[in-house]
Amino acid sequence: MIKLIASLLLVIFTSQVTAQFAAELDPFWDDREEDSKMLVDHSAWQSFLTKYVDDQHPSGINRVDYSGVSRSDYRAIESYLDYLQSLDPRQLNSLEQKAYWINLYNASTVFLVLQEDDDLRSIRQIRSGFLTPGPWERKIFSITLQSLSLDDIEHRILRPIWQDSRIHYAVNCASLSCPNLPKTAFTAANVEAMLDSAAKEYINHPRAVARINGTLKLSKIYQWYADDFGQSTEGLYNHLRKYASPETQLLLEPFRRPEFEYDWALNRP
User: Which residue segment(s) compose the domain that 162 sits in?
Assistant: First the structure.
């Protein structure tokens, strides 16, 4: 009986993980006004990033000084998130929308960590439920009367609408193996350049691509979201080479039997 229960729990957990990483469009959000001149004010988020993100850490991984955040800056992020949720992003043009959803995702992730105590060592300790480590399935947003989770933003809005693999280098999961939380807020004016920069930065860091004792080590991002990176070994190889430096390209050869790794430790200093 114990083995049967354990097997059932494994099946449930596996199905949840599979569903979590599938890109399934929510058509409600697939709308925009390309002639819109409406701009979203991300200055509060920019102020936070300037104060609390260290982009000069010797590891090459940006760190967030969660413990150092003042009460007033905590309230400022809370107000910023309320402001974003008061808007209807469908009234924005495509680039403004893209920056809106990325910043909402990242600022919310930081805010969730700030709500925990200083003993938090991994975002996976913030659970959505008994079988779901991490906060990603929690319905924490209310936008135009629609309840949304972080998963909804990533897998049912950002990924399926834009079909841009660079999205994975923009959304931050507050972990060491995650692409960096940038020190600059995304805007319509900079989003495309920042996505390119984030892809190059991540792919050319050992947490994305490394070769250890002859074995090619890749971030689990490329395993979890294989469909977004060419849907094949050749597609992934071509994606990585597009942004890889000459040194990283040497690590990719030969491109076979990679192992996938991920460090969920919190991106604290």
Answer: 24-197
